[in-house]
Design a protein that fits this description.
Strand order of the largest sheet: 8-9-14-17-18-19-20-21
Distance between the termini: 38 Å
Shape: globular
CATH class of the largest domain: Alpha Beta
Radius of gyration: 27 Å
Number of helices: 18
CATH architecture of the largest domain: Alpha-Beta Barrel
Number of domains: 4
CATH topology of the largest domain: TIM Barrel
Helix content: 25-40%
Strand content: 15-25%
Bound molecules: acetamide
Length: 653
């Protein structure tokens, strides 16, 4: 599994034609590590792929005596050096010391004259046998250079405990690097399921490894309000808790009469300050989202008077069904989860919320949600009708746009810019607001035409909550986005002025994600792919090269003790019917060079069973199709079993 056997395979193949001396020499090279390869053959597994990587000759070896060289008086570089020392300590056991000068060790240098090409986040890293030097215009660049240095070290550097007899080599190299986009984000939904403070930090840590710089924190929704608002204590006393359910989201049993709401949690303001500081030390800005006027059931459980329905019995939703989707993007809510835009009390409430949010989060933007707002209760409400008449609002979209403008005004008063999901375009975009495009890219295209800033986060490519492998072996979600599809997507549509595209992000909605290992499973490796989408020059992207690096990073995750998905090893399965009406199964591996072994006779395949070499016709009466992926003689995929009736359902009409 992983990186080493792939190198070994390459060597094994070559060795067939080598004499014995060469074979021994080659194996010695292999044992000594990839850094002894001739410079031109060196493999660097950097994610995201840098702008330029020039192989060098020789190897830098990190030891307990390696100094971290930071010029005197450079406090910012000193902080990055302290971060590096912290990252290196668990696996190496080294307590590295800093020095102010010296021509050995690891040097962190802030350019006295900024190098325009590098911008605020770029860096140059030069590793020779004697020294590693990272130069940047500012501390963020040094920090990203440090991330590259960590990735140049062997995977064991990710271990949380000392690795015995390790040799901490860095292959000589010169890297010049800077990001394609300023906004490189991941969104984590902590409402549908709550994740503790320590885990949020860990998520942020891992983002930093892959040079993400925006953490979008989806803090409120129908299933939980997760941020302490001191002036509105019921938001967390009531809104952060729901009745416990472990079933399938959207099919869970609604709260029973008198049942205690014991499941949930929230972040205190101290927790939030701690996480903001933690992220800042990793050059990550946090974008808080307060999702209004829809998606507000948890807030309404605390303050029911804020909706049109004013239903005092509304409760935080435990993942039970409360809406019907009509298949064309429209829907009906059976429980009112929407703030009343015609009620001044609502704006007083939002003023309190955003006053505290603005004080807690230093980032220039606050996300106001705006998505999937059901207007059915507004349409029947006399207050909403009167307001529409008074303001000459023609339809419900204009009523939501009025609400959005009020919210944007509140945020402006607090010194913040507004961003919202692309529904905030409907009825007219509030002045100065930025748009997060999620229903495909059309919202982003429209916003860019209006000269509004855009964050591209479209479904499906950026929806890392969707299934990533075959539905037979994934937790069921309504759709799939494979690794390759995320990787190959580009955030700048043709004909759009890229100046308005700030960048993009992956979105992790957590309806079907009750635990932290599942958060990791859904995030990685697709967040590897998106990190290259947002950082790497388009011309340098390379799917096959990326896959090799992903395998190397799986190895790093194994050392770190983090979960990830191996779904890329599952073949893409399509089913057709032939002229005789028999099912025909077609398998397309996402990873080149896999061997796929299958059965149609109700047995469990391995490498001794038929190997796939073209579409398989299911014999009449066959019960189950099964397939498993192998790589280099070892199973790498999961056993996928699909019963005939399920194959029938997959037939493309
Ligand atoms: C969204 O996925 N509702 C923004």
């Amino acid at each position: 599994m992983g990186f080493t056997p792939r190198i070994a395979n390459k060597f094994t193949a070559n060795c067939l034609t080598m004499n014995k001396v060469k074979l021994i020499f080659t194996l010695a090279l292999l044992v000594a590590g990839r850094t002894l390869l001739p410079a031109q053959d060196r493999v660097y597994s950097l994610i995201p792929e840098p702008v330029s990587v020039q192989p060098g000759q020789g190897t830098f070896v990190l030891t307990a005596a390696t100094p971290l060289v930071v010029p005197a008086g450079s406090a910012e570089a000193g902080k990055v050096a302290a971060y590096l020392a912290d990252q290196l300590r668990p696996a190496t056991g080294f307590a590295l010391k800093t020095a102010n000068a010296g021509d050995k060790g690891i040097g962190l240098v802030l350019n006295p004259q900024p190098e325009a090409r590098l911008g605020a986040e770029g860096y140059r890293l030069e590793a020779t046998a004697d020294k590693v030097t990272i130069r940047a215009n500012g501390p963020a660049g040094l920090f990203y250079g440090v991330q590259t240095l960590l990735q140049l070290l062997p995977p064991g550097i990710e271990s949380k405990t000392p690795v015995k007899d390790a040799r901490w080599e860095v292959p000589a190299v010169t890297v010049t690097d800077y990001p394609r986009f300023a906004w490189r984000g991941l969104m984590l939904d902590v409402s549908r399921h709550f994740f503790p403070k320590e885990y949020v930090k860990s998520y942020i840590d891992q983002m930093a490894r892959y040079k993400y710089n925006r953490f979008h924190w989806h803090l409120t929704d129908d299933q939980g309000w997760r941020i302490e608002i001191k002036s509105l204590p019921r938001l967390t006393e009531v809104g952060a808790w729901r009745v416990p359910r472990v079933g399938t989201f959207n099919s869970n049993e609604p709260p029973r009469p008198g049942e205690k709401a014991t499941d949930g949690g929230f972040y205190t303001q101290d927790d939030i300050r701690e996480i903001v500081q933690y992220a800042k030390e990793r050059y990550i800005e946090i974008l808080p989202e307060i999702d209004v006027p829809g998606h507000s059931m948890a807030a309404l459980a605390a303050y029911p008077e804020l909706s049109c329905s004013k239903d005092p019995n509304v409760q935080v939703n435990p993942g039970s069904k409360f809406s019907t989707w009509h298949g064309n993007g429209t829907f009906t809510m059976h429980i009112d989860n929407t703030l009343n835009p015609s009620d001044e009390k609502v704006y007083g409430f939002l003023d309190k919320v955003f006053t505290e949010v603005a004080q807690l989060f230093p980032f220039e933007y606050v996300h106001m949600g705006g998505d999937e707002c059901y207007k059915g209760f507004w349409a029947k409400d006399p207050g909403c009708q009167a307001l529409m008449k008074k303001l000459n609002l023609k339809d419900m979209d204009q009523l939501q746009a009025h609400f959005n403008r009020r919210v944007a005004g509140i945020l402006k008063d607090k010194g913040k810019k507004t961003i919202g999901w692309d529904e905030i375009l409907e009825g007219g975009l509030a002045p100065g607001a930025a748009v997060m495009s999620w229903r495909g890219m059309k919202g982003g295209i429209e916003a860019a035409r209006l000269k509004a800033p855009v964050v591209m986060a479209p479904s499906p490519h950026c929806y890392i909550d969707l299934m990533q492998g075959d539905p037979a072996v994934e937790v069921f979600v309504y759709s799939t986005v494979r690794l390759k599809s995320s990787y190959n997507w580009d955030p700048v549509p043709q004909g759009v002025d890229s100046a308005f595209i700030l960048g993009g992000q992956g979105n992790l909605w957590t309806e079907q994600i009750p635990s932290t290992p599942q958060v990791e499973y859904m995030t990685y490796p697709r967040a590897f792919a998106l990190s290259e989408v947002y950082w790497t020059p388009k011309a340098k992207k390379d799917w096959n090269g990326f896959l090799r690096k992903v395998e190397h990073h799986f190895d790093r995750f194994d050392h770190a003790g983090r979960n990830y998905a191996r779904s890329m090893y599952d073949p893409v399965i399509t089913v057709k019917k032939n002229l005789q009406g028999l099912l025909v199964v077609d398998l397309a591996p996402e990873v080149p060079g896999l061997d796929l072994y299958y059965t149609v006779d109700n047995t469990i395949p391995n490498q001794y069973f038929p190997k796939y070499n073209g579409p398989v016709t299911m014999p009449e009466g066959a019960d189950t199709f099964r397939v498993i992926s192998y790589q280099g003689g070892k199973p790498v995929g999961r056993l996928i079993s699909i019963k005939t009736p399920d194959l029938e359902k997959r037939v493309k009409k």
